[in-house]
Amino acid sequence: MHRDTLSSVIVTKTDFIITASTDGNIKFWKKKEKGIEFVKNYKAHLLPIISLSQTNDGLYLASISDDKTIKIFDINNFDMINIISIDFSPSSLSWVKDPLSSAWLLFVGHKDSGLISRFTLDGTPTIPPFKIHSSTVVLIAFNNKYNTIISADDKGLFEYWEIKDNEPSLIPDGLPWKFKTQTDLYSFQKSKTIPFCLNFSR
Description:
The chain is mostly beta strands. It has a domain at about 1-85: Thrombin, subunit H (Beta Barrel). It has one helix spanning about 185-190; strands at about 5-10, 15-20, 25-30, 35-45, 50-55, 60-65, 70-75, 80-85, 90-95, 105-110, 115-120, 125-130, 135-145, 150-155, 160-165, 165-170. It is globular and about 45 Å long. The protein starts with 5 loop residues before the first strand and ends in a 12-residue tail after the last helix.
């Protein structure tokens, strides 16, 4: 598949497989009845790709790299549709749907801090960088059912939050619990383990 180490693999709802490697390449593959078919390759970044993220509907892909750029792709057309230059080293990213406008927004963590920035599809920062964690955010994920963002840092601490009136708000309404002590969310922190992947069953 790749000449260098794979850093991310994504399978979309539209039956595409997208792979990224540490040499900056992103490859698109189409699932077939038997096997997969190569579609397109992008030399997307000059430095290693840190992470990929797709929208829940499988329409858009974003990638971040140590080269301080975010690349955005139209998945169904295999096109790179935007390049966002940033002034910080990214650590994590996730697409989040704005509940008011239904537009997709991109949340990007800053390496070496707990800051998170938010961008529109065209690369416009919508609010100033904000802090949920005290250390580097290594994971960000969006749960559409509960309209909730979940993030984790390099200390193993998880946070559940949402954006209300352009401000982060912890423990959104509608969750089946009120306090993190009612969950196992402190398990990683207690064992001094850093999570590296986060997905939802629904």
